[in-house]
Write a structure and sequence with these properties.
Helix content: 40-55%
Structural class: alpha/beta
Number of strands: 6
Low-confidence stretches: none
Mean pLDDT: 84
Number of helices: 6
Strand content: 5-15%
Strand order of the largest sheet: 3-4-5-6
Order of helices and strands: EHEHEEHHHEHE
Number of domains: 1
Shape: globular
């Protein structure tokens, strides 16, 4: 098997194990967007989203260019549902598998439900700017997920929400839970405690 990976990080940040594989070609496509700059201090949500969109379009164009040189058998996209440059060229590409870890429609739903709480901590302009961005991303993701040949969800509940929010049919969705390293995440060998450890985990309800 030959694999080509297009990642949004500088090559120096890639694990050595990726750079040493003989049949693995890594294309580094780092964005110039950074925290702590004037644009990220003023509107990091909008400027960060715009930077990621530009990066993904450039990555999509490079994927298409590489496919023309050495055709792929499949394209696997992790994390984000947006296809960007791949969307308009689906007829020229092999099967596209999308593995989203988030979806904007779910964020938009909770953004609307938590409006009263949010308005006590941020300005109306900022609040509605974020809502507009989530609404736009939700519409784009709805269209793009309809073009994917297969959608992988990290949990059954996530798959249910993708069906509900993005009209992903049952025959195009599979559930593959994110792996956990059970050797790394296991009880330590420290002294026994008389009282159990208490952990607070804050999350929105499913």
């Amino acid at each position: 098997m030959e694999v080509e990976i297009f990642v949004g990080a500088a090559e120096t940040k890639l694990p050595p194990v990726l750079r040493s594989q003989p049949r693995l070609l890594v294309h580094s496509q780092a964005t110039r967007w950074r925290y702590g700059r004037w644009y990220s201090r003023v509107a990091k949500h909008v400027s960060g989203a715009a930077a990621r969109a530009t990066q993904l379009r450039r990555t999509g164009a490079n994927v298409i260019a590489r496919h023309q040189v050495n055709p792929f058998d499949a394209i696997y996209q992790f994390s984000t549902p947006e296809l960007f440059a791949l969307y308009g060229r689906r007829h020229r590409l092999p099967p596209v598998v999308v593995h989203p870890e988030v979806h904007a429609a779910g964020e938009l739903r909770w953004h609307q439900r938590e409006r009263a709480l949010a308005m006590g901590a941020e300005s109306r302009g900022r609040h509605f700017a974020i809502r507009s961005m989530l609404a736009a991303r939700s519409a784009v993701q709805h269209q793009d997920l309809s073009r994917a040949d297969l959608v992988i969800a990290p949990a059954s509940r996530f798959a249910e929400l993708l069906r509900q929010d993005c009209d992903v049919s049952d025959d195009r969705i599979r559930v593959v839970p994110n792996p956990i390293d059970v050797k790394r995440f296991q009880p330590g060998d420290g002294p026994r405690r008389d009282e159990p450890r208490r952990v607070l985990f804050v999350s929105r309800p499913p």
